[in-house]
Design a protein that fits this description.
Oligomer: single chain
Number of strands: 8
Number of helices: 8
Number of domains: 1
Radius of gyration: 16 Å
Bound molecules: D-xylitol-5-phosphate, zinc ion
CATH class: Alpha Beta
Order of helices and strands: EHEHEHEHEEHEHEHH
Strand order of the largest sheet: 1-8-7-6-5-4-3-2
Largest sheet: 8 strands, parallel
Helix content: 25-40%
Shape: globular
Distance between the termini: 8 Å
CATH topology: TIM Barrel
CATH superfamily: Aldolase class I
Strand content: 15-25%
Length: about 220
């Protein structure tokens, strides 16, 4: 299973977003993660499609766009047009989630389903055969810099086991929130192979070293 590290641009210096996105790519990021918040699904506003366009123009690596929105069905096309390679929507969104996932595919992007820390694994099982990625939030979404919620770990294992037992052994499982070298290893042991990290990567002067350490720790700990 391929282990990937995705720096989250939310933790970058917003006074130098393009340089920060390029820094992540040059320091070894597999993909860049962009957090889109609508001040309704979560109590915060972050960035819109223009930031995705800027990153698409500046970078070669894929863009992973996380829609923390009540109505992702009304906006996902704008983000695909802006250059999103994969779109993550929430199972808690107020829309027809399976239909929206299919529409994301029809528009040429990868589709992922996200679940909040308190949402049970079984809520996403009906759509697991539609998606390429499952994102398990390891904080309550809305802000960077929060502490990792360890109680999510058994749920990650439950999802990995369900995928293995249901012909989806190649499913990518991603975590997001409070991820550093130590928590990445715990998540890898539970079956996670994609790691989103904001503060612990953009906050490091030597991001390459931080990415390399996280990658090695996750590779060593990963259990399929
Ligand atoms: C939280 C976002 C995360 C956030 C993670 O709502 O979805 O992507 O940037 O930030 P850290 O790694 O600082 O917890
Ligand atoms: Zn995110």
């Amino acid at each position: 299973m391929q282990i990937q590290i995705l720096p989250s641009l939310l933790a970058a210096d917003f006074g130098a977003l393009r340089a920060e996105a390029l820094r992540a790519e040059n320091e070894g990021a597999d993909s860049l993660h962009l957090d889109i918040m609508d001040a309704h699904f979560v109590p915060n506003l972050s960035m819109g499609p223009d930031v995705v366009t800027m990153c698409k123009e500046a970078l070669q690596i894929p863009l992973s766009v996380h829609l923390m929105m009540t109505r992702p069905d009304q906006y996902f096309i704008n983000f695909i047009e802006a250059g999103a390679d994969s779109l993550l929507i929430h199972i808690e969104a107020d829309c027809d989630v399976p239909k929206t996932l299919h529409r994301i595919h029809e528009h040429g992007a990868k589709a992922g389903i996200t679940l909040n820390p308190d949402t049970p694994a079984r809520m996403i099982f009906p759509v697991i055969d539609i998606v390429e990625e499952v994102l398990c939030m390891t904080v309550h979404p809305g802000y960077g810099g929060q502490s990792f919620i360890r109680e999510v770990l058994p749920k990650i294992r439950e999802i990995r086991d369900f995928a293995n037992d249901n012909g989806a052994a190649d499913l990518d499982i991603m975590v997001d929130g409070g991820i550093n070298t130590e928590t990445a290893a715990e998540c890898a042991r539970a079956g996670t192979n994609l790691f989103v990290a904001g503060t612990s990567l953009f906050g490091e002067a030597d991001m390459k070293r931080a990415i390399d350490r996280m990658r090695v720790a996750a590779c060593e700990a990963f259990v399929s």
